[in-house]
Amino acid sequence: MSENDNLQxxxxxxxxxxxxxxPTQPTEIETNAVDTEVNxxxxxxxxxxxxxxxxxxxxxxxxxxxxxxPTTKAPKDELVDEIEASNAxxxxxxxxxxxxxxxxxxxxxMTMDELTAEIGRLLKTHKIQTISKHxxxxxxxxxxxxxxxxxxxxxxxxxxxxxxxxxxxxxxxKKQFNTHYxxxxxxxxxxxxxxxxxxxxxxxxxxxxxxxxxxxxxVEENMGTTYKTFKELQEKWRNAGPIPRDKYNNAWNTYHHHxxxxxxxxxxxxxxxxxxxxxxxxxxxxIIERAEELAEDENTNRSFRELQVLHxxxxxxxxxxxxxxxxxxxxxxxxxxxAIHDKRQSYYADMDKAHEKNLERKEEIIxxxxxxxxxxxxxxxxxxxxxxxxxxxxDAFFKAGKVPLKVNESTWAKFKGAVRTFNRGKxxxxxxxxxxxxxxxxxxxxxxxxxxxxxxxxxFATVTPLMKKIQNEWKKIGHVPRRDSDKxxxxxxxxxxxxxxKMHTERKAQDQHLYDAFDKKAKLLDELxxxxxxxxxxxxxxxxxDKIAEWKTIGYVPQNKRYIDGKFYKAIDDKFDKLKMxxxxxxxIKFESKLENLADSDDTRLxxxxxxFIRKRITEIKSxxxxxxxxxxxxxxxxxxxxxxxxxxxxxxxxxxxxDTWKSKLTKVRGMYS
Length: 674
Description:
InterPro entries: DUF349
Mean pLDDT: 78
Keywords: Coiled coil
Largest sheet: none
Number of helices: 21
Structural class: mainly alpha
Pfam families: DUF349 (PF03993)
C-alpha cells in the first residue's frame, strides 16, 4: 500500500519519524512551512502530498520509527482512486448518490417514441442531478436514430427531384424530444447555478476549520480544554456541507493531515487519544467485516456501490487508530476492496463476452439486410414484402444489445450503409412507379371531366350507359399518387352520384303511383297479419278471398318492391292453413287464390309457367305410382295383410289422391285462358 493513498492518510500512516525521544513543539518556521505547502496545493486543486518528508522532516512524534515512503502507486491505490472519484462527485450533493438507484435500461433497443417517453419519465420521477448519465445516453441514441431517418427522408426528397439545399424535415417526436431536452438543460443549469454559491461558502467554512485546528497546536492551555475545542471543530467539520468535487480530496487530505498532527505531535492526554483510537478501530473493523461480506455478494454493482459508502465512512466519519493497527487494518480493508473490484471486473469481462456475441448477431442481421437489398424482386408486392422484412431486421438489430465500444461506431456505420442501400433501391423503384401513377392520374382526371360534363344531363337513355362505362374504366385504371387518391375519388364519386340521384328522383316522380300502391299494399299486409279468424270456415274463406281481391285492385308496385307480393301470399297461405276443413278442398281454394294473382289479360307468361309446372308434377306422380305398382309384383306370394304390402297399397292410394288434386289444378289453369 502506497503512502500516497488518501485513506491511509486518515490512519496517520504518513507521519515521519525522528531519532529524538523527547516530544517537542514544532517551531514556528516548521509549522509555517507545512501550512504554506498545504495551502498552495489546495489552491491549485491538486492532491495534497502530505507524505513528502521535506515538508515535515523535523516534526517529531512520540515513540515513532523512521518509515520508507514509496513513490509509485500500487494497484490497490488505483482501485481506491476510482472510489474516491465517485465519492468526490457525490460530495457536491448528498442526493447525487441516488443516481445509482435510477434503473438502467437498454436505450439502444428503444424506438424514438420510446426514448422520448423515457426522457419525459426521468424528468418527472427523478432529481435532475441524478439523471445526467441516462439523459446523455438517451440523447445519443435518439440522435443516431433520427440521423438515420433524416438521411432516408433526404434521399427520398432528392429522388423526387428536390434540391438538397432546400431539404428540411422534422416530426412531432423530434419536437417533443427537443422540448424535454430543453427542459433538462434549463433545470440542470439552474441547479448548478444555485449550488455553486453554497459549495463555495461550504469550502470557505471547511478551510476556516482547518485553520482553527492548525491554531490549536500553538494554544497554551489545559489539554482537556484544547481537546474539547478539537472535538467541537471535528463536529463542525462533519456538518459543514458539500463542497466542489475538484476540491474534495484536497480538503479532506489537508484536514486529515492536521488532525494527525494534533494527535501525534502534541503533548495530548494519552487516555483521551487512546479512547479515540479504540473507537475508530472498532468502527473500522465493522466496516472491514461488512466489506468482506460484500465480497461474497453476487450483485457486483450493488456491492460496489455500498463499498463506496464504506470508504466514505472510513474517510469522512472516522479518525486515525493506534499506530500498531494502522497498516494491518488498512491492508485488510484494501484486500476486501480488491476482492470486490476483481469480482466486478470479472462481471464486466463476462459482459464483454456477451457484447461480442451481440456483435456477431448484428453482423448477421446486417448481412441479411444486404441480401434483402440485393433481392431482384421488382414488383410493388415484392417491395412491400421487403420493406416489412427490413423493418423486422431493424427491430432485431436494435434489440440485439450493445456491442464492444471499440466497434460500436463502425458497426453502426455498416448498419446505416446497408439500410441506405436498400432505401436507394426502394426509392428508385417507386420513382419509376410514380411515373405510371401520374399517367393513371391523368386518365382518371379525364374520366372526372366526362362525369362532370354529363352529371346534369336529362338524356337518361344515352348518358346512363356512358356513366356506367366510365365507372368500369375507373376500376381498371391502376394506382395514382397517394396524396391525390382520396381527392380525385371524391370528385368522381360526387359527379356520378349527382347524375344517378337526379335520374332516380325523376323516375320516382314518374312512377309515384307505383310507390303509392306499395304503401297501400304494405298497410293491407299488416292488416292481414293481425287478422283473427272466426272459426267459421266459409266465412273465413270469404274474408281471405276479399283480401286477395282488394290486393289485386291496388295494382302494380315498383320493380324493386315486388317482393311484397310474395310476403302477402305467404301470409294468405298461413291463414288458410289454420282453417278447419278437408285438406284437399283447402288446397284447391288456396290454388284458386293463387290463380287470381297470376291472371293477366295482357300477359299469360305466369299462367304458362304454372301450367307447365303442373303437367310436370302430374307426370312425376304417375311415374311414382307405376313404380309402386311394379314393386307389388315382388310380393305376389305374400299375404295381403302383410305390413309391408299394406304400406305400399297405402302409398299408392295417397299418390292417386294427390294426382286427382293436380289434375283438378290443371283444369282450373286451362279455364283461366278463356
